[in-house]
Amino acid sequence: MGDDDLWCAGALNELRRAIDALPKVGVILRAWQTVSKETGKLLDAHRYFPGDRVFKPGPETVAAFFRRSVFLSGLTICTDEARRIETDKFDGTLLYQLYLVGNLLMTMPGYYVSRMTAIRRAGGEHYFGSSESESERFAPRQLSVEHSLNFVRVFLRLPKALNPRTGARSAG
User: Fold this and answer.
1) Which residue stretches of the chain are H helix?
2) CA atoms of 163 and 88, how far apart (whole Å)
3) CA 116 remoteness from chain centre
4) Beta bridge partners of 111
């Protein structure tokens, strides 16, 4: 979860249900919503598919989940397998989860939960750049063109770090 995001009521039960339905799941993608931090008014609902669904491992699932996994809150990954492929290569980029998602889904199924599970509060200050690993790319409470360029550079570089055969770390 992001430091300023919230869980929807019943969200953890939904994620537990998905894990029970598919015990060897690599990644659980979820629906989420954006609300105004000031008013609490719903601004947007992000539903990617019409209902819950299982995805087979492989490149098609990586493509379906990849950009939809940029918003971190509520995204759920298989911790044991994530530790197997962990790297510090993408620390501080705000997109490390894409490295994990892409590699896990090459060899493990994905699951989509269509019920809203996470809430992003728009209008709040971000804290990107607060950690040591982020300090060279981002500054807390500031958004700049350079921050956006850093983000996009990593987003475009990440697919090259995926290993299509094993889901393990790529030398590239």
Assistant:
1) 11-21, 59-66, 79-84, 96-107, 145-157
2) 16
3) 15
4) 28, 54
DSSP 168: S
CB 130: neighbour CB atoms within 10 A? 13
Q: Model confidence over 163-172: pLDDT tens digits?
A: 665 545 443 3
Cβ neighbors of 24 (< 8 A, separation 6 or more) are 78, 108, 109
Smallest CA-to-CA distance from 115 within 71, 69, 66, 50 is with 50
Q: Tell whether pTM > 0.90.
A: no
Annotate 44-87 with DSSP letters as a single string.
EEE--SSS-EEE-SSHHHHHHHHGGGSS-TT-EE-HHHHHHT--
pLDDT in tens, 72-82: 889 999 999 99
Q: Which two tokens stand for residue 117?
A: 């599970």
Q: Report the residue count for the chain.
A: 172
Is 105 exposed, middle or buried (CB count within 10 Å of its CB: 0-12, 13-18, 19+)? buried
Q: C-alpha angle 23/27/33, rounded to 5°?
A: 120
Name the token pair of 52: 């819950």
With 80 as the cut, is the pLDDT of residue 27 above it?
yes
